[in-house]
Write a structure and sequence with these properties.
The complex is a heterodimer of chains A (about 700) and B (about 325).
Chain A: H1 2-12, H2 17-23, H3 38-46, H4 56-64, H5 67-79, H6 82-89, H7 93-98, H8 101-119, H9 127-138, H10 144-164, H11 173-180, H12 182-187, H13 197-215, H14 228-252, H15 256-273, H16 275-294, H17 297-310, H18 321-329, H19 332-338, H20 365-370, H21 379-390, H22 396-412, H23 422-440, H24 445-459, H25 467-499, E1 504-511, H26 515-526, E2 530-537, H27 544-553, E3 558-562, H28 566-569, E4 575-579, E5 582-584, E6 589-592, H29 595-604, E7 609-612, E8 618-619, H30 636-639, E9 666-669, E10 676-679, E11 682-684, H31 689-702
Parallel strand pairs in A: 1-2, 1-4, 2-3, 4-7, 5-8, 7-10
Antiparallel strand pairs in A: 5-6, 6-9, 10-11
Helix pairs in contact in A: 2-3, 2-11, 5-8, 5-9, 5-10, 6-10, 6-16, 8-10, 8-14, 8-17, 8-18, 9-10, 9-13, 10-13, 10-14, 10-17, 14-17, 14-19, 15-16, 17-18, 17-19, 18-19, 21-22, 21-23, 22-24, 22-25, 23-24, 24-25, 25-26
Chain B: H1 14-38, H2 44-58, H3 64-81, H4 86-105, H5 110-139, E1 147-151, H6 156-167, E2 172-177, H7 184-194, E3 199-202, H8 207-210, E4 216-219, E5 223-224, E6 230-233, H9 236-245, E7 250-253, E8 294-297, E9 304-307, E10 310-312, H10 314-325
Parallel strand pairs in B: 1-2, 1-4, 2-3, 4-7, 7-9
Antiparallel strand pairs in B: 5-6, 6-8, 9-10
Helix pairs in contact in B: 1-2, 1-3, 2-3, 2-4, 2-5, 3-4, 4-5, 5-6
Classes of the chains: A alpha/beta (about 700), B alpha/beta (about 325).
Keywords (chain B): Cytoplasm, Initiation factor, Protein biosynthesis
Subcellular location (chain B): Cytoplasm, Cytosol
Family (chain B): Belongs to the eIF-2B alpha/beta/delta subunits family.
Chain lengths: ~700, ~325
């Protein structure tokens, strides 16, 4: 379960490298995002048969979608990359050639199917399905030559919808392979790709034939066997045909010049790849690279529209209101008005998968001042919020401490308005402040727990208690919470962690920055233990450098590596100490993005993974993936590579209509990778987290507070 | 203890206190040995608890803090008697934990608190002696007729469990490993034979060979650690791995006073022990010999633990411990 989730996570971002490689859809300069663990990448290319996992949210959507629509979606998606090639190659003559009535219809169909598929969500399905759907629409009993035209048409229609759709749509690797298989066969008779348009066409056809040939035997469905949904999909797709085709033809033409250059440039590579599909590789890649530069505005609009229509859920990277609108309208008709949308409208910084999360926005003073409620916010909280936003206070404990201190000031400066009750009014008052903080940066689990604790105390204050006394009581409560749950807890936890460091010869791996892990290692060194630390780090936060500085200052020998060295370095490691943002009641650990990969690697090598986490960061929630709750960071952070000013591929990414960057802050590791959770109460297995939570809940109910 | 001063007049000086504590420690150690000698069925943990209860009876401390400190010292002294015995350590820790819990309840009256602690100690010792019977009753249900049970080393609770099953009329046979170097398996075989339970003795190295014929593995434990793994006689881990590979259930019978607050990360993480090496005469002089007497079996290899608290999954052990210690 988990590796899948992770691979999904990694696929969702801008980085679709592995898939692209397989499909032969090469984007120049789009190097894999630095945050992507090389290990996972390798794992993905190595390829399980179905590398694409549909997250639950989409499965829900899928439920009402027809199977054929989904299949068609996959088909178009898989075929997309080829499309540009063909159309581009043959642009002048072939396009016109291709406009036999049957072809048009088929194109229309495919486009429609693609569009339809958007509204549904797609399931990863073998290409045969797509072909099947195609074949079944086009008609039973047609001759094979026609079949070839069909598939070709589907391919070129795919172009429109797909070129438009997020070009990074990741077709599952398996599909891609399947598509590429027929390529050589079909294309064998054809000349090298860079050739004349007429040739290009024949290539296409041949390849299409091969595709169809492969698809057909796997069982085209007669129309009467189609499900109702399938039939509806067919109808809709036919209706959608005209619009899509119009757009497509219009869009293809302007690309001619661009293509010419691309074709020559990539001829060699294409030739190596051979035939239709391979041919698609270079040229298919071209548009996306050159798009920003060379494409006419009209075409771009088309793209956007198509993107809106055809981007499927698997085409994760594009997710935004515009797209979903398009999906909602469903058929091709919906695509037409969308042409007028500004491409920028598409470029939000999130993907559809993560659209439910609070989107990252750069917080500035002026922006904060525009908030309606800002006038009532205590200056301490204002300041704190800004510091959260700029990242000068980071780390679960530090953030929680700072918040509690600020709330303490808020309470101190609070006076109950006339005619109101402290316990009620103060709750509301605090909620306003907390809401403000959330705007600056989403709360961490520890902060949420602290707030809940404080609110519980406030709500139990009797109305008879004088205000001054109540405020003192609350301040004391906050001080106790800080002392017991954070400060002393840290100390205690560190003692336990130190006890797990051998006197000699340990090599301890830690990832990014955890205050309490740093402290434990420093204490262990102070206790005279001789060990070495491997500090693992990753872009874009590079928090590990702070850890490194602190450990070096304590005289501990260190090795500094990035996450992509994990598979190498893990062999010399004896123990892994990791911090956590939260530990959930199923033992899942929520931590800085990348931590799960480290834990997974350690688990695979049978190295003990110790999570250091105070119980104030325990939460009753259960989380199975990193999607449902997470935090989005500044996507800009991905585009800039420090120390490498020449890497400019992602410059101006936000103006690119089909590019999204995803900077996730956290990931989750399932309990099976966790050897133990070190808490202030000692070391417990991750399965016992609910027991600790239960004990706390009981003590919270019986006594006034847990301590 | 003859010179035990009345506490009203107690003038605390360093030497005096040390002397008192020394006496108390002596009492504890003597009581511990007495308890062990009195009854060969006596477990180390229970003997330790009896010894600590005796310390409370003789204690002259006027505050609960004082009592706790005396107890902690006495516990240290007991553990010095047998520093590598984990179940002794576990028993002491358990009892100390009980006292702190009790002292939280009875803050006012020191005498009442002491009485209560003594009562608890006796109660604890009593339930502990009953633990084996409880386990035998619970565990004998796991044995079916005509099954073959593999066991390793000599464990009183396993023996009791098998006796119980046999006396209830079940027909089954037991395979016992030899249990080198101390031959505890042979002891086990003898005791089973006395009970007329069919017994087969195999070499320790025969475990993989015999595993096909085995229906379940049942062992005791020196200690049950926090994640539900066990520490037991050397070879248990190997048997557990073999059982896992052959998909045979691996059951552990262990009294709850063997639950220890330990969390080993691996074999190297066990408490160190010094044992005389059992080495053949033919050994080349430069060969190193490693002779541990126990190994750690991780919870992943254990199907169920039969304890006097009930039949637990390994994860539930931690739950019990947390409730005790949190």
């Amino acid at each position: 379960m988990f590796p899948r989730v992770t691979s999904w996570d990694n696929m969702t971002g801008f980085q679709q490298q592995p898939v692209k490689q397989v499909v032969g859809f090469h984007v120049e300069g789009a190097s894999p995002s630095p945050t992507q663990p090389s290990l996972l990448q390798a794992a993905m290319t190595a390829g399980s048969p179905t590398p694409v996992i549909i997250p639950p949210s989409f499965q829900r959507e899928t439920s009402h979608a027809s199977r054929s629509a989904a299949a068609a979606d996959v088909a178009t998606r898989v075929l997309v990359p080829e499309v540009p090639v063909r159309v581009l190659d043959t642009s002048g003559s072939t396009t016109s050639q291709a406009i036999g009535a049957g072809v048009q219809q088929a194109a229309a169909e495919a486009a429609g199917a693609a569009i339809r598929a958007t509204s549904s969500s797609s399931a990863p399905r073998p290409i045969q399905h797509a072909e099947k759907a195609e074949a079944s629409h086009q008609g039973l009993g047609k001759v094979s030559s026609q079949a070839s035209i069909n598939s070709e048409a589907s391919i070129s229609s795919g172009l429109f919808s797909l070129e438009a759709s997020t070009s990074r749509t990741p077709p599952p690797a398996a599909h891609a392979q399947q598509t590429s298989l027929p390529g050589p066969a079909g294309g064998a008779q054809s000349g090298p790709p860079g050739q004349q348009s007429g040739h290009g066409h024949s290539v296409t056809q041949g390849q299409g034939a091969a595709l169809a040939a492969e698809g057909a035997p796997k069982g085209p469905k007669p129309q009467r066997e189609m499900t109702k949904a399938e039939r509806r999909a067919l109808q809709e797709s036919q209706r959608a045909a005209k619009a899509a085709q119009k757009a497509g033809v219009g869009g293809a033409a302007p690309e001619k010049p661009v293509k010419g250059a691309a074709a020559t440039g990539d001829a060699g590579r294409a030739a190596r790849g051979g035939a239709g599909v391979a041919e698609a590789r270079p040229t298919g890649g071209k548009p996306s690279v050159t798009a920003a530069v060379g494409r006419s505005e009209g075409e771009r609009r088309t793209d956007t529209a198509g993107g809106g229509a055809a981007s499927g859920p698997i085409g994760v990277p594009v997710a935004n209101a515009a797209d979903r609108e398009g999906a909602g309208t469903g058929a091709g008709a919906g695509a037409a008005p969308k042409k007028k949308k500004d491409p920028k409208a598409v470029s939000l910084n999130s993907t559809e998968l993560f659209a439910h999360l609070q989107q990252y926005k750069r917080i500035t003073v002026s922006r904060l001042l525009q908030l309606p409620a800002v006038g009532n916010v205590h200056p301490a909280i204002l300041q704190l919020g800004l510091r959260y936003a700029e990242g000068s206070i980071r780390g679960a404990n530090a953030r929680c401490l700072a918040m509690l201190n600020a709330l303490c000031q808020v309470i101190r400066d609070y006076t109950t308005p006339d005619g109101k009750e402290l316990s009620r009014d103060l709750l509301r008052h605090l909620s306003d402040h907390v809401n403000f903080l959330v705007v600056c940066r989403p709360l961490s689990v520890g902060m949420g727990n602290a707030i809940r604790h404080l609110k519980l105390r406030i709500s139990t204050i009797s109305p008879d208690m004088p205000e001054l006394e109540a405020k003192e009581l609350l301040e004391q409560e906050i001080a106790d919470y800080i002392n017991v749950r954070i400060d002393s807890a840290d100390k205690q936890l560190v003692n336990y962690a130190v006890a797990k460091v051998e006197a000699h010869g340990d090599v301890i791996l830690t990832y990014a920055a955890s205050h309490v892990v740093q402290r434990a290692l420093v204490e262990a060194a102070r206790a005279g233990k001789s060990f070495r630390v491997v500090v693992m780090d990753s872009r874009p936060e590079l928090e590990g450098r702070a850890t490194l500085a602190r450990l070096l200052a304590a005289g501990i020998p260190c090795t500094y590596v990035h996450l992509n060295a994990a598979s190498y370095i893990i062999r010399e490691v004896t123990k892994v100490f990791l911090g956590a943002a939260a530990v959930l009641s199923n033992g899942t650990v929520l931590s800085r993005a990348g931590t799960a990969a480290v834990a997974m690697m350690a688990h695979a090598h049978s190295k003990p993974v110790m999570i250091c986490c105070e119980t104030h960061k325990f939460n009753e929630r259960v989380q199975l993936d990193s999607i449902t709750h997470n935090e989005l960071g500044d996507p800009e952070a991905l585009s800039v590579v420090p120390g490498k000013p020449e890497v400019t591929a992602l410059e101006g990414w936000c103006d690119h209509p089909r590019l999204r960057l995803l900077n996730l802050k956290y990931d989750v590791m399932p309990a099976e990778y966790v050897t133990m959770v070190v808490t202030e109460f000692g070391m417990v297995p991750p399965t016992s987290v609910p027991v600790i939570l239960r004990e706390f809940r009981q003590s919270e109910q019986t006594v006034s507070g847990p301590f | 203890m003859q010179r035990r001063p009345s506490h009203q007049k107690l003038v605390v000086t360093e030497g005096f206190e040390a002397n008192t504590q020394g006496t108390l420690n002596d009492i504890a150690v003597r009581e511990f040995h007495d308890a062990l000698n009195r009854d060969e069925e006596m477990a180390f943990a229970v003997a330790a608890i009896m010894a600590l209860t005796a310390v409370i009876k003789r204690s002259s401390a006027t505050t609960l803090m004082g009592v706790s400190k005396e107890l902690a010292d006495a516990a240290q002294a007991l553990q010095r008697v047998n520093p590598t015995n984990i179940s002794l350590k576990a028993g002491c820790e358990l009892f100390l934990r009980y006292t702190t819990r009790t002292s939280a309840l009875e803050l006012q009256d020191i005498e009442k608190a002491k009485a209560r602690l003594i009562e608890r100690g006796l109660h604890f010792a009593e339930t502990s002696t009953r633990a084996r019977q409880t386990i035998a009753e619970l565990g004998s249900r796991f044995i079916r007729s005509n099954c073959t049970v593999l066991t390793h080393g000599y464990s009183r609770v396993v023996l009791r469990l098998l006796q119980q099953a046999f006396s209830s009329g079940l027909q089954f046979s037991v395979i016992v490993t030899e249990g080198r170097p101390d031959g505890t398996g042979i002891t086990m075989a003898k005791k089973l034979d006395v009970e007329n339970i069919p017994v087969t003795l195999v070499l320790d190295s025969c475990v993989g060979y015999i595993m096909d014929k085995v229906d379940m593995v049942l062992t005791g434990a020196d200690a049950v650690v926090e994640n539900g793994g066990i520490i037991n006689k050397l070879g248990t881990y190997g048997i557990a791995l073999a059982a896992q590979a052959a998909s045979k259930p691996f059951y552990v019978a262990a009294e709850s006073y063997k639950f220890a607050r330990l969390y080993p990360l691996g074999q190297a993480d066990l408490p160190e022990e010094r044992k005389p090496l059992d080495v053949g005469p033919m050994l080349p002089p430069r060969t190193n010999v490693i002779n541990p007497s126990r190994d750690y079996t991780p919870p992943q290899c254990i199907s169920l633990l039969v304890t006097d608290l009930g039949v637990l999954t390994p994860a539930a052990v931690s739950d019990e411990l947390i409730q005790l210690y949190l």
